Amino acid sequence: MPKDLRTFIAEVAEKRPQDIMMVAENIDPRFGMTAVAAALERRAQFPALFFRRSRGSELPVVMNLCATYERLALALGTTVQEMVPTYAERQAHPIPPTIVETGPVKELIWTGADADLRRLPIPTHNALDGGPYLTGASLVARDPTTGALNIGLYRHQIFGPQEIGVWFMQGHHGLYIQQAYEERGEPMPVAIIVGHHPAAIMGTISRIPGIGGEYEEAGALLQEPIELVKCETSDLLVPARAEIVIEGVIEPGAYKQEGPFAEWPGYYTEQGPKPYIKVTAITLRHDAIFYDVFAGHREHCVLGSLPRMGSIYRRVKQVVPGLKAVNVPAHVRMHCYISFKKRNEAEAKKAAFAALLTEPENLKLIILVDDDIDVYNEPEVMWALGTRFRADKGLQVIHDWSGPGGLNPAGWDYFPDGTKQPRMMPVVIMDATKPAPPNWFPPRAQVPEEQIAAVDLDRLLRPFDQRAALGQAAGAR
User: Fold this and answer.
1) From 459's CA, which of 18, 229, 303, 305 has a CA 20 to 30 Å away?
2) Would you tell me how many other CB atoms lie within 10 Å of the CB of residue 267?
3) ω into residue 438 within 30 of 0, thus cis?
4) pTM for the complete prediction?
């Protein structure tokens, strides 16, 4: 069976049953669903949440599906340790989509007054949000010059029953396409995909050079061609096995005040006049599952981390063959940790700049470590920084690298009158690697690896028995 949102939910339930929970009560999409996720978050628990019923809609909602690296690795059929090189390797072998006549997403077709966004259980996520938002939705558009289809993950504020905003971030291909239609004075057909396999969603986030190629990337990550069908009101192609597709058009010069909205850094920053979409049709499965990303919290960051790590890994590997691992930690997606087997002193700068050129707008800090450091273990990275980093040799600050403005609140200057001014952002490179051969460096204090591997913790460890332990000790005296 082709992979989609349902096959992945079933796989999580089978292979990681502790990772998914169901809420059977009728939950209000305005803060009610995110309140459940936030309460679990305070316990450091991030299960996928399946809400059977939502107030005001007949459709269920799944949230937090991509809130852990373990579930992202499962989406690729691999492990957390291997998910980044697996992602990078698959990027090198795109799989073209296939066109089919119809699919499950066409089981229901709403047009005219029936194409009403209020029929969907669209959550309002955080206290200061300007209203309900689509957060896990991928927008499809066609470049008017080349004809290439481009897909990107953007935020979409619901303005009314048939009006929905779109915030195209500076530097993203969607903005270039929208500006091209605007300059031509032509309406821009769009389609918004809600709900598919996480590997397909990650394909729309990947850093791909040039406009287009996301469906091919999704196929590579899925390890099968993604099936596409033609939209009802345009010639755009959308996944046949999606849960919901919202079709519409952006008229040239049509803008509405958008925001505020809690973005992935966990702050409210960018808002203002943005383009908006006039809905022309909604197609969906007869029992569609609404897919939502918990905005401004862990899932919002985790979902975006792996595509960036995979893209950075592939780019760095091209210039530093000894690359071992890359981590863009979900809790601070502005940082990047890179480990590699160092052959010469130039490799550190090559690795850092390859990463920055792959992800130029969001990264603020690159930490380079040796291949004996686990980049997924942040205390180890900090230990390497404390024992191998020398600021007089390994620190590099690049001024005015990215911006101005953007989603990171540090990209703005703030004034007492409540106004703010965008500013260019610097980046920092910290080389915490040992000197390259033939120079030497003191060895680490480590227990022999074969001795650690031989320990059977399940056999050795038991709950502490105070009477037995302390009584025995007293008897020994």
Assistant:
1) 18
2) 14
3) yes
4) 0.84
SS3 assignment, position 421: strand
Q: What is the CATH number of the domain that holds 160?
A: 2.30.110.10
Degrees, nearest 5: CA angle 408-47-87: 65
Q: Tokens in use for 103?
A: 């699919």
Answer yes or no: is pLDDT of 264 > 70. no
- Partners of 373 in beta bridges: none
279 and 330: one domain?
no
Q: % helix / strand / coil in the chain, to the nearest 5?
A: 35, 30, 40
How far is C-alpha 38 from the geometric centre of its chain's CA atoms? Answer: 18
Q: How confident is the model at residue 85 (pLDDT cuts 50, 70, 90)?
A: very high
- The separation between CA 201 and the C-alpha centre of its own chain, rounded to angstroms, equals 9
Find out whether 373 and 389 touch, Cβ atoms under 8 Å: no
Half-sphere exposure of 459 (CA within 13 A, CB side): 3
Do 410 and 268 lie in one domain? The reply is no
- Parallel, antiparallel or unpaired: strands 227-230 and 420-422: unpaired
Query: Which CATH number fits the domain that encloses residue 375?
Result: 3.40.1670.10
Give the residue among 148, 109, 457 at the shortest CA–CA distance from 283.
109
d(CA 425, CA 35): 34
CA Rg, the chain, in Å?
Answer: 24
Q: Is residue 360 in some structural domain?
A: yes
User: Could you tell me which of 204, 230, 232 has the C-alpha nearest to residue 216?
Assistant: 204
What gap in Å lies between CA 302 and CA 267, rounded to an integer?
Answer: 16
Provide the number of structural domains found in the chain.
2
Q: Which two tokens stand for residue 325?
A: 């691992």
Cα 173–Cα 5–Cα 208 angle in degrees, nearest 5 = 25
CA pair distance 322, 325, nearest whole angstrom:
10
The C-alpha angle 75, 79, 84, rounded to 5 degrees, equals: 80
- Asked, for residue 16, whether it belongs to a domain, the answer is no
Residue 271: give the domain boundaries.
Answer: 80-294
Per-residue pLDDT at 171: 66
Mean pLDDT of 375-383: 93
> 187: which residues sit within 8 A by CB, 6+ positions away?
181, 249, 250, 251, 252
Give the position of tokens 């920053």: 269
- Confidence (pLDDT) at 303: 80
The per-residue pLDDT for range 206-261, each reduced to its tens digit, is 878 788 899 999 999 999 999 999 999 999 999 999 999 999 999 999 999 998 88
Cβ atoms of residues 292 and 62 within 8 Å: yes
The confidence band for 16, taking pLDDT boundaries of 50, 70 and 90, is very high
First-residue to last-residue Cα distance in the chain: 68
What are the backbone dihedrals phi and psi of residue 467, each rounded to the nearest 5 degrees, phi first? -65, -50
